[in-house]
Write a structure and sequence with these properties.
By secondary structure, the chain is mostly beta strands. The protein contains no helices and 27 strands.
Length: about 240
């Protein structure tokens, strides 16, 4: 637990730096005032938290200053100020996990129960299942912005929720491994991107699915949606 300062400039800092920290949870107490903050900092070291990380308010900071690694087995709470620099956040719990909508550099899901966004987020690199087979990442109906790299190594990347149709992020590089699945799961109308070559493609949820162009699916095309339209002149191969 990182306590709150009591006066102007009375900052409370746990500096991990290039070292290692292992704990069951991290709780950063609300300062209640912008003239002080409570924070944890990490440069090139590793923090392993088996449970949750929680923030009291925006004056509570989790700051990477380099390519450090945060392994988290619980939820990454909302409401704090999270700065990732070139760091990696690896969700590796054994039960369902959630994360606030922060700006990540490398965001990883190595959890078979699923990692779900609680707000719109940004990531330079999204990796699913590089350490744990059959992992899952779900945008939860909150748009993920990523113009970098997708590494869908093992498992499922799920887009959309019952009430919201999210779109395929504009990944510059798409590494989609054999046996993986992309699922468009919105309960409202949703566009299926023709940008990637899918291994397995699943369309689910009550919303009509419309292809954004010709689609290529290497293995299984599973259409559970109420309707699917590919449009004149487009193909499904």
């Amino acid at each position: 637990t990182i306590g709150a300062g009591t006066g102007n400039g009375d900052n409370k800092i746990l500096a991990v730096g290039s070292g290692t920290l292992s704990c069951s949870s991290i709780s950063i107490t609300a300062t209640g005032n912008g003239n002080r903050n409570s924070s944890i900092t990490l440069s090139t070291g590793t923090i392993t938290v088996t449970g949750n990380i929680s923030f009291g308010d925006v004056n509570d900071l989790f700051t990477f200053t380099g390519a450090g690694i945060l392994n988290i087995g619980g939820n990454l709470g909302t409401g704090g100020t999270f700065t990732c620099s070139t760091g990696t956040v690896n969700f590796n719990g054994s039960t369902a996990q959630t994360t606030g909508g922060y700006t990540f550099y490398t965001l990883k899901s190595n959890n078979t129960a699923g990692v779900t966004l609680l707000a719109a987020a940004t990531a330079t690199i999204l990796t699913v299942g590089d350490l744990t087979a059959s992992s899952a990442f779900n945008d939860g109906g909150f748009q993920l912005t990523c113009t970098g790299t997708l590494n869908l190594t093992s498992g499922t990347f799920k887009l959309g929720s019952a009430g919201t149709a999210t779109t395929w992020p504009a990944f510059t590089t798409r590494n989609i491994s054999s046996g993986t699945t992309v699922e468009y799961a919105s309960g409202v109308a949703q566009t299926v991107s023709n940008a990637p070559t899918y291994e397995n493609l699943t369309l689910s949820g009550a919303g009509a699915k419309t292809a954004g162009g010709s689609l290529t699916v290497n293995k299984v095309f599973d259409c559970q949606a109420s309707t699917f339209a590919i449009g004149a002149g487009n193909t499904l191969t």
